[in-house]
Amino acid sequence: MPQLEEEYKDYTFIQVDRDENIDLCQSLGIMGIPSFVVYRDGKEIDRFVNKDRKTKEQVESFLNRID
To answer: Which domains does the chain have, with CATH numbers?
Structure first.
C-alpha cells in the first residue's frame, strides 16, 4: 500500500482492519483483502471488491480507470 499511496497522491487511502471492523465490512460487502471502495463527495463511485487477493498491477489498473 505505501507504494500505491506514493504513486496515487490524488487519492486518500484509508485502511480498515477487517477483523476489527467486521460489521462495517459486511455492510459494505467487503469480502477480500485488499479491497478498494472509491468515494467522491460522500458517494460511492466505484469499487474493486471480491474474495480474491489482488496484485499491485490489478489495483493500478482499477485506479487508472476511475474518472
So the answer is: 2-59 (3.40.30.10)
List, for residues 16-44, the tens digit of each pLDDT value. Answer: 998 999 999 999 988 788 889 999 999 99
The DSSP code for 3 is H
3-class DSSP assignment, residue 61:
helix
The per-residue DSSP string of 4-60 comes to HHHH-TTS------TTT-HHHHHHHT--SSS-EEEEETTEEEEEE--SS---HHHHH
Sign of the four-CA dihedral 22, 47, 32, 10 = negative
What single letter denotes the amino acid at residue 62?
F
Q: What percent of the chain has pLDDT over 70?
A: 100
